[in-house]
Amino acid sequence: MGSAMTALPLVFDAPRRGKPPRHLADLTREEARAAVADLGQPAFRADQLARHYYRGTTDPAQMTDIPAAARETLREALLPELLTVVRHQTADNGRTRKTLWRLHDGALVESVLMRYPDRATVCISSQAGCGMACPFCATGQAGLTRNLSAAEIIGQAVAAAAAMADGEVAGGPGRLSNVVFMGMGEPLANYARVRATLDALLGTAPYGLGLSQRSVTVSTVGLVPAIRRLTEEGRNVTLAVSLHAPDDELRDTLVPINTRWKVGEVIEAADAYAQRTGRRYSVEYALIRDVNDQPFRADLLGRLLAGKLAHVNLIPLNPTPGSPWDASPLPAQREFVARLRAAGVATTVRDTRGQDIDGACGQLAAADRVEGVPAVALPTPAVEAPVPLGAEADQG
Ligand code: SF4
């Protein structure tokens, strides 16, 4: 670890930058109807516009249920293009597609669409950059640029749904079924916008994608007050806690937010969430060679989670050339899993989809700005994609 433990300050308040233009997806149904009325159009046109938007249509020529004269006005006022594709990269025989997006102010974020036989999952970003300063993470080392607006987050999921519907990933047309907030950023540090995004993901047509609560996963590095707030909201989405260390001594440096809220507090908040929702939470644990993969830490983690409504996802680090951070060797991974299972803790090693396209936390965007920064295969795949230990990435 040593020199790799670059100590950056934790940043909770995103820098204020020019706001993205107003977008339909930032508005409640009532606000959208009022905005349309302000444009001199009947309020129901907001519903028509929303239906088109959530189906991935922003081309006025296709909005045939809206009078031609009104289409461009409505599109300009309420459907500005917030996300521009910089590039797509595909992997896993075309079943994984990573997209780098440029936002209106030049900030870069990424999303990853992964198709499995039984579902399609998109991993989305909630912030440009991240203020949580985890030393092993490219995004964390580059710092926080800004919070995304709700429409900028929702737009990533809408684009993924449209890509699935249009058959843009291998396997023909399909349906987006899952969303995980495991791209760039700490979702709960951008709480209000993430909450609004949940409304859109779970909302039914015309103002939403109609996903089920269990197929949406919100991850957090451990912002305890925000976990409690989410618990009170009554949205039964799946919670994923990025723990990466079972003891405060290591976690204080590996996941610096731990200096605010300790392991015990994070797990207590996650337990309360599980009790309230009846839903098992997942504990994400990036296995880093000689840093957090020792047998005694497996035992500590086992004791911490035994008997709890929790499931451990072990994520072998995705090593970056030149980085001092490396993945745990296979025997160490096996030992870690065996000890957790012996403690009665459900454990899987996560599929590291897209690894051959730098499928790592913020790595794609960071690669455009920061040379040689270490990264981790943290947030790409779905939480519910268990892969047998030692299996190759492409499990489909
Ligand atoms: S690992 Fe996650 S929480 Fe930590 S700096 Fe990276 S994006 Fe932020």
Tell me what the structure shows.
With 396 residues, this protein is an alpha/beta fold. It has helices at 29-38, 44-54, 68-78, 138-142, 150-165, 191-202, 224-233, 248-254, 263-277, 295-305, 330-342, 363-367; strands spanning 84-91, 96-102, 108-115, 120-123, 127-129, 144-147, 178-181, 216-220, 238-242, 281-287, 310-316, 346-350, 386-387. The strands form two sheets. An eleven-stranded mixed β-sheet has the order 1-2-3-4-7-8-9-10-11-12-13. It has a two-stranded antiparallel sheet with strand order 5-6. The longest helix has 16 residues, at 150-165. The chain is elongated, with a radius of gyration of 21 Å. Iron/sulfur cluster binds next to helix 4.
Strands ordered across the widest β-sheet: 1-2-3-4-7-8-9-10-11-12-13
CATH C-level class of the largest domain: Alpha Beta
Task: Count the domains.
Answer: 2
Global mean pLDDT? 85
Tell me which ligands are bound.
iron/sulfur cluster
Report a brief summary of the structure.
With 396 residues, the chain is α/β, with parallel strands linked by helices. It has two domains: 24-78, DNA polymerase, domain 1; 110-387, Aldolase class I (TIM Barrel).
